[in-house]
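Help! Submission page says 'invalid entity' but I think these are all valid:
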Amino acid sequence: MAPRGAPSHRALIERTVRSLRGHPTADDVFMEARKVEPSISLATVYRNLRALVAEGRVRERQFLGISRFEVSQRPHAHLVCRTCGAIADVHSDVSELVKPFRQLPKGWRAEEVDLEIRGLCPKCQATSPAQLPLPGDLLK
Amino acid sequence: MAPRGAPSHRALIERTVRSLRGHPTADDVFMEARKVEPSISLATVYRNLRALVAEGRVRERQFLGISRFEVSQRPHAHLVCRTCGAIADVHSDVSELVKPFRQLPKGWRAEEVDLEIRGLCPKCQATSPAQLPLPGDLLK
DNA sequence: AGCGATTATAATAGTGATTACTAATAGCGG
DNA sequence: CCGCTATTAGTAATCACTATTATAATCGCT
């Protein structure tokens, strides 16, 4: 059904997330959307992003403490640079990897899986000095 | 070497994280630590947690946007309830699962891996009404 | 012992992302 | 037309976290 009342910016905001194509923050979306609709409010962006997430049209993730959004797509892993916050997709078959976890826990119902790999992006590897003493053998 | 200067609360804070045994937030640690050392400050808890993370003695993770801490241990996955925020460990061999990702991306250096599974804990499954229309086949 | 450099501290003010609240507006069913 | 409700812009409030500030404890050195 078409929305009633004030003009819905839902579609604009979804289009904007789609056009930004990376993993934009709410603020990124806001900055971009106001180019089209200069009067749009940050609160409106948040509200509609939340709605889009609830509808399942957009995926929300937290990287380094702040929410980022992407249009729903096949599951994939994310690389996150611990220094500059850069994010890259890894389009390997996560769902395959994750299968053994499907029915592990007693009573829990799994809905969504995130595989996040933290490290250094190429740029920050060049810049950053001593690398963290790897706390053990995470990737052994 | 023993710490110089004012009395270090490092050890107390590490002990507290260990005793809480779940995935306490900074505030959880603060509340607990002040039972032993009532004059301790929240900033001190944050400062020392950061230090412990840097030393590799404690692991930091963000669930649903807020930092939680646990003593370092073998890598494992986490279940996160999207409703109440409950967290459970899944002690399967994550490192095994993750091997195919080790050297995937060009130029990136992987350091740490998190596998997070979001869903509903047993309690919230009983309570919560309609469950989200699963946005596709994440766990197919 | 006494002194300065170092480092941790408590208390508090500040920051930045997110949410809640407010009054206003626009279309629909009756 | 008349409420009804979804939505809005704008702003205040919240919440986790960080920076600042002034203070105090301990060390190495003399």
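Support: the input was valid. A stray whitespace character was the problem, and the output above is from the cleaned input. Residues 3-10, 39-44, 47-48, 65 of chain B lie near DNA strand C (CB under 10 Å from a C1').
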